[in-house]
Amino acid sequence: MTSLTLNGQAQRCTADPNTPLLWVLRDELGLTGTKFGCGMAQCGACTVHLNGNAVRSCVMPLASAAGAELNTIEGLAKDPVGRAVMDAWVETDVAQCGYCQSGQVMSAVALLKSNKKPSDAQIDAAMAGNLCRCGAYMRIRAAIHAAAA
Ligand code: FES
């Protein structure tokens, strides 16, 4: 049994501690907002926050989250920065197919929590690990600026 705090609530997980967090979230806990893309820490679709840091849940074993604060896209609306980013995402009409978007939003929130007014270059650097096959990068950048305003 692994105990952690998930989106502000105490959570106990029964999966093997070596199970990637992505599959614990999706299969054991039914939180399917976190997406599987590559499974190799290359695309960012599975991004969640572990103790406030954006991490790739596809390569992070459940054991890494023991006793930690884990936040997913499902809990983001309770967070003022998360709310601002999600509102900006909608207002900027960022999503095309939408598959990568929860990972993009999680990375954007982590960025804005560490840097309230990032430059274009800082946004590009922070978001470089989140791929978008629709090429929504300019709208992603615009939404981050809007959320920071
Ligand atoms: Fe985790 Fe691609 S699914 S980085």
UniProtKB/TrEMBL annotation:
Q: Which GO terms label this protein's molecular function in UniProt? A: 2 iron, 2 sulfur cluster binding; metal ion binding; oxidoreductase activity
Checking PROSITE patterns in the record gives: 2FE2S_FER_1, 2FE2S_FER_2
Q: Which InterPro entries match?
A: 2Fe-2S-bd, 2Fe-2S-bd_dom_sf, 2Fe-2S_ferredoxin-like_sf, 2Fe-2S_ferredoxin-type, 2Fe2S_fd_BS, Beta-grasp_dom_sf, Diverse_Oxidoreductases
Cite the entry's keywords alphabetically: 2Fe-2S, Iron, Iron-sulfur, Metal-binding, Oxidoreductase
**Which SUPFAM superfamilies does the entry mention?**
2Fe-2S ferredoxin-like, CO dehydrogenase ISP C-domain like
PANTHER family in the record: BLR6218 PROTEIN, OXIDOREDUCTASE WITH IRON-SULFUR SUBUNIT
Task: Quote the protein name from its UniProt record.
Answer: (2Fe-2S)-binding protein
Task: Tell me what organism the protein belongs to.
Answer: Inhella proteolytica
**Lineage of the native species?**
Bacteria, Pseudomonadati, Pseudomonadota, Betaproteobacteria, Burkholderiales
